[in-house]
Amino acid sequence: METIKTITVFCASSSKIDDCYFEEAKKFGEILAKENIACCNGAGSIGLMNELSEAVLKNGGKVIGVIPQFMCEMGWQHNNLTELKVVDSMHQRKQTMANLGDASVALAGGIGTLEELFEIITWKQLGLYPKPIVILNTNGFFDKVLSFLDQLIEQNFMREEHKKMWKVVDKAEEILPAIRSFEAWDNSFRKIAAIK
After folding, report:
1. What does pTM read for this prediction?
2. Pick the CATH number of 6-180 from 3.30.420.40, 3.40.50.450, 3.20.20.10, 3.40.395.10
3. Which of 10, 19, 84, 117 suits 110 as a labelling partner, its CA being 20 to 30 A distant?
């Protein structure tokens, strides 16, 4: 694929999770900074979002945070990012993050992270999002989600070809090689979205 300038990252805002998730988030932040790739995330000031942002910033990288106004009113935003984009809604947040990144990466996270991941996969299935999607499966975090996606394919709710929409890696250092090795995907794949 073309030069990667920015990667959108979905991840947890929880701080009460195992250290292994923080370690991989930090490692990925360091890699992004070293590779001069900007990080776009949800601008949170705690959890993996904060760990990722701090790792990028401490290593001279750039972080673009996108957050809805109501979250700023709650004081949830990270105030020292390279750029903070305040938007009107969660829908606008996701669209902005998708537009800014040359790829999307899901780290471990809660229901918000899963919702972002499933929405971006849905957009790709419909030919609306041609960019790479990578799932970092730290500590087998996404095993059950991936098993469920396999079930959708086995029971004909999705096609086998749809597994090409994402890649799964176990370590932060495997994310960029996975992104760079993606096959092209465009709106011509829209024709296989429905199963008849």
Report:
1. 0.96
2. 3.40.50.450
3. 84
